[in-house]
Amino acid sequence: MKFTKAIVRTPCKSFINGLTTAGLGKPDYGLALKQHKRYIETLEMCGLEVTIIEPDENFPDSVFVEDTAILIPECAIITNPGAESRKAETIRIKTVLKGFYSNIEQISSPGTLDGGDVMMAGAHFFIGISERTNIEGADQLIKILKNYGYSGSTVSLNDVLHLKSGVAYLENNYLVATDEFAGKEEFKKYNILKVKDEESYAANCVWINDFVLVAKGFPTTKELIEYAGYKTLELDVSEFRKLDGGLSCLSLRF
Ligand code: CIR
User: Fold this and answer.
1) 245 close to ligand 1 (CB < 6 Angstrom)
2) What is the pLDDT of residue 210?
3) Is the peptide bond before 110 cis (omega within 30 degrees of 0)?
4) CA distance 58 to 35
5) Comparing C-alpha atoms, which of 6, 148, 10, 135 is closest to residue 77?
6) 61 lines ligand 1 (CB under 6 A)
């Protein structure tokens, strides 16, 4: 597969008050802007045409656009984010996606779903059941996916906010995974690159057109991915980590 486009959203000033469990202190807004800019340049380097949505002070977490939609070639599926403060982020995203998709689907209450819980692995989608994504949301998504010829299944999780905080699909049957996911029955058929506990944050990496974006500061994971044959690009996302976010959360790729 090949991605050609991405959507990102500039962090707003209220970003520093976003939701968090990380305990790493408040993000530095100026540094976050710099890291975000570098992130955009890197997506462009991977061949993507990037649409940048303007910031909105009403939504501190709106930089984490990945949570607001699931994109497949046939349609855009607007999510219903599990956190109350994030639900209306989808309004702006929907208007932007209408410029790219004629077919728009929607997850609705009582179903909740965050894009960070949805991992695409070829024609199959793994959906984490988390504090943000419930069974109803996952069932709605699976039903929509089925209509377009894809399949989906749920995965339980305990240690992380979102499924993709702990596992990433790198195409060619490779998964990067933390201890929590490396041993799971449903991932048995994949070649697993297991991330060391002290580098667990680096499991949130992103495959884009033969490159893998890896968080800066996790050398063993970077080497592991390179050893499996991928070209890596390191990016510092320290300020987003402070809000439980990572590389995948910062864009929608399609
Ligand atoms: C939140 O709690 O919703 C944000 N502070 C972080 C969202 C990270 N998104 C992701 O992992 N897909």
Assistant:
1) yes
2) 87
3) yes
4) 21
5) 148
6) yes
Phi, psi torsion values for 141, nearest 5 degrees: -65, -45
* CA distances from residue 89 to 50, 74, 113 in whole angstroms, order as listed: 19, 22, 13
Separation of CA 61 and ligand 1 centre (Å): 7
Which of 107, 119, 118, 58 has its CA nearest to residue 80?
A: 107
CB atoms within 10 A of CB 183: 11
Domains and CATH numbers, the chain: 5-253 (3.75.10.10)
Model confidence over 1-60: pLDDT tens digits?
899 999 999 999 999 999 999 999 999 999 999 999 999 999 999 999 999 999 999 999
Pocket test for ligand 1, best of 7, 16, 20, 67 (most atoms within 8 A of CB): 67
Q: Check whether 221 has a pLDDT greater than 90.
A: yes
CA dist 39 to 79, 221, 235, Å? 24, 19, 7
Q: Report d(CA 153, CA 126) in Å as an integer.
A: 5
Q: C-alpha 83: how far from its chain's center?
A: 16
pLDDT digits (tens, 9 = 90+) for 141-176: 999 999 999 999 999 999 999 999 999 999 999 999
Check: CB of residue 204 under 8 Å from CB of residue 237: no
CB atoms within 10 A of CB 6: 23
Average pLDDT over residues 197-202: 97
